[in-house]
Amino acid sequence: MLSSVKLREINLETRVIPRCIHKLLGSRLYYVRIRPRLLTVREAVSRKTVEDIPFLAVDHDSDPVKILEVGAIAASTAAQSGGNVDLVNGFDHPRSIISDFTLAEKTLQHFFLKLYDDAFLKPSPIVIMHPLEKIEGGLTQIEVRALQELAMGAGAREAHVWKGRELMDYELESRSFPQEGWASAKPKWDK
Questions:
Q1: Alpha helices in the chain (DSSP H)
Q2: Which of 39, 100, 118, 129 has an alpha carbon 20 to 30 Å from 153's alpha carbon atom?
Q3: What's the whole-model pTM score?
Q4: β-pair partners for 69
């Protein structure tokens, strides 16, 4: 039988180790600026940036539907396919920042993969989603929720929506932002 001291040590170890791993993998902060014709994902500390047109080259003939290319390369792939490949943009709609939730989620997921393609373990970042167009009159609660769900579906462990001015690198690094810019609930780590 294990003593109560030994049981406390085991409980402490099982709580500390996952927290350490979670901290290593989840401490990244991604800032996502969304425009229908340009998607930018920036990692706050390293300042590594992926910026491209949010196009997907999709082969609808395959089952399940297969994504062939992402970004500007997707446009050339679709042009060279002879009509077998569709060029789609999940962020291009006349009234809303998201036109197709599933396609937008896949696009964001591919952008995240490009950002940490050299990592052994894929991080689960905190993401700040920042729509920069088609937000006249503010964001509805549905749009805010959709942006949060989009980031979570793409691999984020936590997602927030920012509606203010574009954020500066020092604000992202220090994780302290102006108070008036949050469209979603203010993060607990924001002072």
A1: 4-26, 72-80, 101-115, 141-153, 169-174
A2: 118
A3: 0.80
A4: 57
